[in-house]
Amino acid sequence: MTRVDFYVLETPDHDRHQRMICRVVEKAWQQGHTLYLACDDEPTVRAYDDMLWQFQDTSFVPHATCFDADARVPILIGCAPGPLGEADVLVNLGSAVPDVVSRYLRVIESAGYDDDTRTRARQRYRYYQERGFPLATHKVNA
């Protein structure tokens, strides 16, 4: 069954949240996973594309967006639901749980960075919990 991991910032704010997501993505890729980052809209896709290029001067995280023609990279950023069979890890950056979460080995979720995003994260957590997904939380000092 798909494992769901929620990442919780000890002192949340927007910038720390974005850096945390980039570090989690980088770590999963370094462990040999292929990832799909599911966003709600094109501006968010573009923002994460930029962040993954810039979040650390010393790292390289090979990625592309769904708007890049024939992108063959281990990390793809797009709007849900994502391409079939390409990735084993879903990073849900959207506001709702995508219908396709069960086709991934693992789902990475954020607990949010403000009242609104934390409320939506709690709703997603309850969704997974009610359906019996194995859940884990990870506290991050970022």
In short:
This protein is 32% helix and 25% strand. It has 142 residues and is an alpha/beta fold.
Task: Give a description of the structure.
This protein has 142 residues and is of the alpha/beta class. It has one domain (3-140): Rossmann fold (3-Layer(aba) Sandwich). Helices cover 32% and strands 25% of the residues. The protein is built from three helices and seven strands; from the N terminus they run βαβαββββαβ. The chain has a seven-stranded parallel sheet, with helices on both faces. The longest helix has 17 residues, at 14-30. It starts with a strand and ends with a strand. The mean pLDDT is 92.
Secondary-structure map:
Elements: E1 3-9, H1 14-30, E2 35-39, H2 42-54, E3 63-65, E4 75-79, E5 89-92, E6 106-110, H3 115-130, E7 135-140
Parallel strand pairs: 1-6, 1-7, 2-4, 2-5, 3-4, 5-6
CATH structural fold name = Rossmann fold
Compressed to H and E, one letter per element, the order equals: EHEHEEEEHE
Structural class assignment: alpha/beta
Beta-strand share of residues: 15-25%
Radius of gyration: 14 Å
Oligomer: single chain
CATH first level: Alpha Beta
| Main β-sheet description | 7 strands, parallel
**What is the global morphology?**
globular
Tell me the number of strands. Answer: 7
Number of domains: 1
**Which strands sit side by side, in order, in the main sheet?**
3-4-2-5-6-1-7
Known CATH architecture: 3-Layer(aba) Sandwich
In the CATH hierarchy, what is the superfamily?
A: DNA polymerase III subunit chi
User: Count of helices?
Assistant: 3
N-to-C span: 30 Å
Average pLDDT taken over every residue? 92
